């Protein structure tokens, strides 16, 4: 009897923990930029973030797997090259590992993220909006791995969540000694995100 009681107690506890876990999908918009010392709003580039999320049973830890568009648009104006913008398009697969605190319906989350660059290109756009083509820079000219810090705040509902988050990159995007490294001038990723998350 004692063994059965222990078994059923463990079963009930495990079931309760599994029921308390939350998982789902999430998506939203990125306001991406590159920075060296400061972030300039005029270089901001819009992108998407899409992914999966899972929150531990106690609600204190959340892991995610996201696809995220990053980069920036940099304006140039010179006599030889004319005027226009360079658009840095950098696409990452990222995993934030977040510690979560709850204050009523609010959740505050902070932690590190790691990312893998899955695609990159640079587009040169004239001042009249004409795309001149894709530069010779590609994924091989950039650092494959990225990492940094993420933090934000969300509002929890019964089966959904909305929130804002800031991702602060700690690694330079361009490979040292490469043209990308020189062109990006030691820049790192900076991304402000708005997102909606839905439970499965």
Please specify the SSE layout and strand pairing.
Elements: H1 2-20, E1 22-35, E2 45-55, E3 61-78, E4 82-103, E5 106-126, E6 131-134, E7 145-156, E8 160-172, H2 179-184, E9 188-199
Antiparallel strand pairs: 1-2, 1-9, 2-3, 3-4, 4-5, 5-6, 5-7, 7-8, 8-9
Structure description:
An eight-stranded antiparallel beta barrel has the order 1-2-3-4-5-7-8-9. The relative contact order is 0.18. With 200 residues, it is mainly beta. Mean pLDDT is 84; it is low at 13-19. The chain has helices at 2-20, 179-184, and strands spanning 22-35, 45-55, 61-78, 82-103, 106-126, 131-134, 145-156, 160-172, 188-199. The chain is elongated and about 80 Å long. The chain has a single domain (22-199), classed as Porin (Beta Barrel). It starts with a helix and ends with a strand. Helix content is 12%, strand content 64%.
List keywords for this structure.
single chain; 200 residues; mainly beta; Porin; 8-stranded antiparallel barrel; 2 helices; elongated
Strand content: over 45%
Order of helices and strands: HEEEEEEEEHE
CA-CA gap between termini: 38 Å
- What does the average pLDDT come to? 84
* Tally of distinct domains: 1
Rounded to an integer in angstroms, the radius of gyration calculated over CA atoms is: 21 Å
Q: How do the strands of the widest beta sheet line up side by side?
A: 1-2-3-4-5-7-8-9
Biggest beta sheet attributes: 8 strands, antiparallel, barrel
CATH topology: the name is Porin
Text of the CATH class? Mainly Beta
Structural class: mainly beta
The tally of beta strands, per DSSP, is 9
CATH architecture: Beta Barrel
Percent range of helical residues: 10-25%
Low-confidence blocks of residues: 13-19
Based on CA inertia axes, which overall geometry fits? Answer: elongated
Number of helices: 2
């Amino acid at each position: 009897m004692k063994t059965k009681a222990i078994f059923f107690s463990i079963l009930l506890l495990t079931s309760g923990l599994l029921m308390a876990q939350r998982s789902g999908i999430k998506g939203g918009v990125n306001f991406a930029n590159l920075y060296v010392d400061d972030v300039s709003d005029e270089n901001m580039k819009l992108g998407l973030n899409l992914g999966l999320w899972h929150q531990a049973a106690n609600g204190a830890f959340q892991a995610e797997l996201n696809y995220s568009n990053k980069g920036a648009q940099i304006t140039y104006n010179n006599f030889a090259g004319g005027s226009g913008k360079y658009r840095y398009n950098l696409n990452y697969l990222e995993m934030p590992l977040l510690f979560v605190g709850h204050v009523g319906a609010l959740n505050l989350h902070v932690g590190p993220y790691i990312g893998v660059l899955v695609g990159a290109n640079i587009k040169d756009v004239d001042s009249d909006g004409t795309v001149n083509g894709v530069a010779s820079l590609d994924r091989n000219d950039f650092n494959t791995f990225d990492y940094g810090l993420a933090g934000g705040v969300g509002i929890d509902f019964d089966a959904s969540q909305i929130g804002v988050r800031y991702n602060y990159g700690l690694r330079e995007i361009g490979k040292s000694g490469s043209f990308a490294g020189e062109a990006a001038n030691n820049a790192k990723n900076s991304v402000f995100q708005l997102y909606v998350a839905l439970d499965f």
